[in-house]
Design a protein that fits this description.
Blueprint: H1 13-17, E1 22-29, E2 32-38, E3 43-51, E4 57-65, H2 80-102, H3 109-128, H4 135-145, H5 171-179, H6 187-207, H7 219-226, H8 238-242, H9 249-265, H10 271-282, H11 286-290, E5 297-298, E6 303-307, E7 319-323, H12 326-336, E8 347-353, E9 360-367, H13 374-384, H14 393-404, H15 409-415, H16 420-426, H17 428-441
Antiparallel strand pairs: 1-2, 2-3, 3-4, 5-6, 6-7, 8-9
């Protein structure tokens, strides 16, 4: 038969001063107690709780030094209320860890990330029909899991975060990992890494829903809080960098002429020209254009259905209709003639080396891969005489073109598969100019004209 706990008056410094030397208890819950051990010099707080996973015996941990002088918060020493909060946290973490260990191997950040990478890689294989690695997997292996030396990439050690148990994960663990990312990375690049890790951790919660004992009930809140605070990013530098990336319609024409010439010289058979024309006409991201299908070209409606990007929570499975001109439809006709509607719209020749030789020959056609536009683009910008222009300039220019034409910001955002917030953040100066032009078009002459033809009206004299 268990003994009845006799609670002591330990709630104030004055009450504790009247206690005898030794240990005194205060109940936290039915199976957890806050302890106060009074010594000759000072007292200390500790906590005990019943551990049913180890025969029902009590476990005990120190909490901190007691503030026996007054009941005001002081760094390094704890009042009764502070000791209670700390003790409850200790017990809660211990119970979660015990339950997690009893339920089987405790999941870690590493296991959560590895499961997420498998899902992303499987999705890429289904989408491309080839055994490829997802972009998220590449980044998370390098900056979380660690990787061996691969090609020109140096080996990377696993981050300490990888070995943290999910049930013991704290907001500080996530912030420490984020602050430990290399300083030479752009802030926006770091944020993409943060988003990938956040997605991996959030994916672990529903996956372990059948046995939530393996996770802290506040796990989703911890992940959200750990990545909540936005870092000061480099958006202030973006408009300066983009000023020379906003192209006029004539400059876009020069780029496309250069693309046509490079396409012919490098033997792309029109494949390079078609995909760049699509980028210029729709303002789509390269990753979106790569996922377009033959059926996305709606000839009679003069419209392209551009699939949403994989950015954001849960991806984006829809498609946005983007009107284009007859000239763009004409360029794409060769890519859709006689092909099934579910076939990739943009393909290119895959080359392989001839046996026992150094020559390369065309082997088969396949969809464009990530990064394949970089090599021909160098030749394109040299041919166009624009050494600083990047492929993303076509997207910037399309967005600004829509703003200058007076399209509502919501419509520009919809056409380009982004948010109004991002449009306002990155293109504020162009929005202001476009709105001023619209306002100026509404200006009318209000001041009455005199008989002499002037527009100055003499005011009456004062009495």
């Amino acid at each position: 038969m268990s003994k009845t706990l006799t609670e002591a008056q330990v709630t104030t410094a004055k009450a504790r001063s009247r206690l005898e030397l030794g240990v005194h208890w205060r109940r936290l819950d039915a199976e957890a107690h806050l302890g106060y051990r009074k010594g000759k010099q000072s007292g200390v707080w500790f906590v005990r709780w019943r551990n049913h996973h180890e025969g029902g015996n009590y476990k005990q941990e120190p909490v901190g030094v007691a503030n026996d002088v007054n009941d005001k918060p002081v760094d390094g020493i704890l009042t009764f209320e502070q000791a209670v909060r700390t003790a409850r946290d200790v017990v809660a973490r211990a119970r979660i860890e015990a339950a997690s260990q009893a339920a089987g191997p405790a999941p870690t950040v590493r296991s959560a990330v590895e499961s997420y990478i498998k899902e992303r890689d499987a999705r890429e294989r289904r989408r491309t029909g080839r055994d490829v690695r997802s972009d998220a997997g590449t980044k998370l292996r390098r900056y979380v899991l660690g990787q061996e030396k691969r090609g020109n990439q140096e080996a990377a050690e696993a981050a300490p975060l990888a070995s943290v148990y999910l049930h013991a994960l704290t907001e500080n663990d996530l912030i420490t990992w984020r602050e430990g990312l290399p300083n030479d990375l752009k802030v926006t690049t770091k944020q993409r890494f943060v988003n990938d890790l956040k997605a991996a951790l959030n994916a672990a919660w529903p996956r372990l829903s059948a046995d939530r004992k393996k996770l802290n009930p506040t796990f989703p809140a911890i992940v959200k809080a750990g990545f909540k605070a936005e870092r000061v990013d480099d958006d202030d530098d973006v408009p300066v960098a983009r000023d020379n990336q906003i192209l006029t319609d004539d400059e876009v024409g020069v780029i496309l002429q250069a693309v046509c010439e490079v396409d012919q010289e490098q033997g792309f058979d029109g494949d390079l020209y078609r995909i760049v024309v699509c980028l210029a006409a729709t303002g789509a991201r390269y990753a979106q254009a790569r996922r377009m299908r033959v059926g996305d070209v709606q000839v009679s409606a003069r419209r392209l259905m551009v699939p949403g990007s994989y950015k954001g929570r849960g991806g984006n499975g829809g498609a946005d209709p983007v009107p284009v001109g007859d000239d763009v439809i004409e360029v794409l006709l060769l890519a859709i003639a006689g092909r099934p509607s579910d076939a990739p719209l943009f393909e290119r020749w895959i080359h392989e080396q001839e046996p026992s030789g150094i020559a390369w020959k065309k082997s088969q056609r396949g969809p464009w891969k990530r990064g394949e536009l970089a090599r021909p683009w160098k030749a394109i910008r040299e041919r166009a005489g624009m050494p600083q222009v990047i492929p993303y300039a076509l997207r910037h220019s399309s967005i600004v073109r829509g703003l200058r034409k007076g399209l509502p910001i919501q419509q520009v955002a919809k056409l380009h598969n982004t948010s109004v917030k991002m449009i306002e953040r990155h293109y504020a100066k162009y929005i202001a100019t476009a709105l001023e032009d619209l306002a100026r078009a509404a200006v009318v002459s209000l001041v009455p004209r005199t008989r002499t033809g002037g527009n100055v009206v003499r005011m009456g004299k004062r009495a």
